[in-house]
């Protein structure tokens, strides 16, 4: 394991540790392999060629009293360090090539302290830079206009760089905004509020900025450094820095990292600020260009596919004709409906049917009390017998006057008896047809009196049915007799049935808070096994339209009414 292995190992190391290893190598300390656990912010790294069990055995020998352990292994030496940090215990291991001296261990121990110090210094510098960025952000956000905010940002950033990066004491920052067609426009410069657009420096700055826009990466040239600022994948602005220091081939990483972080923090704010200052027309033009750019530029495939599908959908719902429909709730009724009324006054003694029961013709539905009628019938029968006896006596005596009177009395009594007998028959109220009881529930009212003509039951015939639709008043003008439609019943949600409008009743009624009209329709084909009172939804075809109008018709009519009522 020599320098080649060391090179492979250090490539994967964090930059500060790799720099530390290179410094050890310059001091003739050959580190073959490195291992560390919970070391600063670098995390954990395992030995490459040394087993974990071997490293664990060395860690067990480390303690607070003995934080260093060295032992030979294969052709080299394993060195373990125990480091005490504030938040966690840290271990550091080195696999060293011989020779090893006491001075070597002291150099390694001292250099580890140097590494720790360098790391802490770097973190403090990063924290200081972050604090300064937030201060600059506060300066910028308190300005009143976009250009003033940009000028304040550039000036504050330049001042900070000159104070913290003393080697760039003459640095100048320039901010360019990219216009359509990749045209760069100068906005502000540090220490300047105005500059000649035709000056040599300005032309050179524009050239550098345009080069950064075209190449879409940062530019390093003698005296110049440029950084393109992206927004949604497009270069939106360019930051150009000028200083003699850039002519030298020294490392400018610290400065460029700070400037990039600075730009990444400030540019979104400046972008929103500039958009907010745009007029309505300018904002509309910018939005339109951005929108059209998604179709004319490369990429944006998802947007183009979705737009294509949406266009096809809109064409379909506007150009393809469909049936214009009027939708309403409906219920099924028998084509013939009988209302059964009380033929006379009386008391209910027995109820034999309820709504929903199927009945036959002449089937008894309800019985009324016939006690009084039977008493009256017995009295009239007795009077009839007396009249007949008087008639026989008068005939035997050949008394024409008495026989005539007896004959008239007999006829009167027979008429009364026939009337009472008819009433007795009517106490058993029967169904006049085969059908279904759809209204009238008297089971809980046995023994209560009823008056002559009181509605007792409604019976619908079973041989034929009709459809009753409740069409809203806003749609009734579209419905005409003879129009066809389809319906679905709640009891048969998977089946569709055809019907034809036969009658429109010009009398409005309110159902379910909807004012509408009664429309009758006949079944086109043989209906299923129906029961009067079934409910569903019907759709009447009243013409042709497109899907867009069919979906929005109710809203359009509502808007027309509201606009008219308002104006």
Automatic annotation (TrEMBL):
Keyword Glycoprotein: no
Compartments in which it is found: Cell envelope
Transmembrane stretches, start-end: 301-322
Recorded GO CC terms: cell envelope
UniProt keyword Transferase, yes or no: no
InterPro entries noted in UniProt: UPF0194_transport
Protein name stated in the entry: Putative efflux pump membrane fusion protein
Source organism of this protein record: Acinetobacter bouvetii
């Amino acid at each position: 394991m020599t320098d080649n292995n060391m090179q492979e190992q250090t490539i994967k190391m964090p930059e500060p540790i790799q720099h530390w290893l290179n410094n050890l190598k310059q001091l003739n300390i050959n580190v073959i392999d490195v291992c560390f656990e919970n070391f600063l912010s670098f995390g954990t790294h395992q030995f490459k060629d040394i087993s974990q069990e071997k490293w664990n055995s060395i860690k067990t020998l480390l303690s607070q009293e003995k934080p260093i352990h060295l032992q030979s292994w294969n052709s080299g030496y394993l060195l373990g360090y125990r480091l005490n940090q504030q938040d966690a215990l840290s271990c550091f291991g080195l696999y060293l090539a011989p020779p090893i001296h006491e001075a070597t261990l002291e150099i390694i121990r001292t250099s580890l302290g140097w590494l720790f110090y360098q790391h802490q210094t770097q973190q403090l510098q990063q924290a200081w830079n972050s604090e300064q960025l937030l201060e600059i952000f506060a300066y910028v956000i308190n300005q009143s206009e976009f250009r003033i905010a940009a000028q304040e940002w550039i000036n504050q950033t330049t001042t900070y760089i000159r104070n913290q990066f003393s080697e760039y004491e003459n640095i100048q920052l320039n901010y360019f905004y990219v216009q359509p067609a990749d045209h760069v426009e100068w906005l502000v410069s540090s220490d300047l509020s105005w500059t000649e657009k035709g000056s040599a420096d300005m032309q050179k700055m524009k050239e550098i900025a345009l080069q950064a826009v075209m190449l879409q990466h940062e530019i390093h040239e003698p005296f110049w450094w440029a950084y393109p600022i992206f927004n949604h994948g497009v270069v939106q602005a360019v930051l150009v820095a000028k200083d003699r220091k850039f002519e030298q081939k020294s490392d400018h990483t610290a400065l460029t990292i700070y400037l990039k972080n600075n730009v990444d923090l400030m540019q979104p704010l400046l972008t929103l600020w500039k958009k907010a200052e745009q007029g309505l027309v300018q904002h509309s033009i910018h939005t339109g260009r951005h929108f059209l750019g998604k179709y004319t530029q490369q990429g944006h495939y998802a947007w183009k596919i979705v737009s294509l599908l949406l266009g096809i959908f809109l064409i379909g719902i506007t150009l393809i004709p469909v049936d214009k429909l009027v939708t309403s709730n409906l219920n099924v009724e028998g084509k013939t409906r009988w209302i059964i009324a009380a033929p006379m006054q009386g008391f209910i003694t027995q109820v034999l049917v309820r709504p929903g029961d199927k009945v036959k013709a002449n089937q008894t539905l309800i019985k009324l009390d016939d006690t009084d009628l039977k008493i009256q019938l017995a009295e009239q029968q007795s009077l009839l017998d007396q009249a007949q006896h008087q008639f026989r006596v008068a005939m035997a005596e050949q008394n024409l006057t008495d026989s005539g009177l007896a004959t008239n009395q007999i006829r009167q009594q027979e008429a009364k008896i026939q009337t009472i007998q008819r009433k007795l028959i009517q106490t058993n109220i029967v169904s006049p047809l085969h059908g279904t009881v759809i209204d009238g529930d008297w089971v809980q009212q046995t023994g209560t009196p009823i008056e002559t003509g009181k509605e007792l039951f409604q019976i619908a015939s079973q041989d034929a049915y009709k459809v009753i639709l409740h069409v809203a008043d806003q749609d009734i003008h579209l419905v005409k007799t003879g129009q066809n439609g389809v319906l679905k019943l709640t009891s048969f949600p998977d089946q569709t049935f055809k019907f034809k409008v036969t009658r429109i009743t010009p009398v409005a009624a309110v159902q379910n808070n909807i004012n509408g009209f009664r429309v009758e329709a006949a079944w086109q084909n043989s209906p299923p096994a129906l029961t009067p009172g079934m409910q569903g939804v019907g759709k009447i075809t009243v013409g042709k339209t497109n899907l867009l109008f069919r979906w929005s018709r109710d809203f359009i009519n509502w808007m027309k009414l509201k606009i008219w009522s308002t104006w």
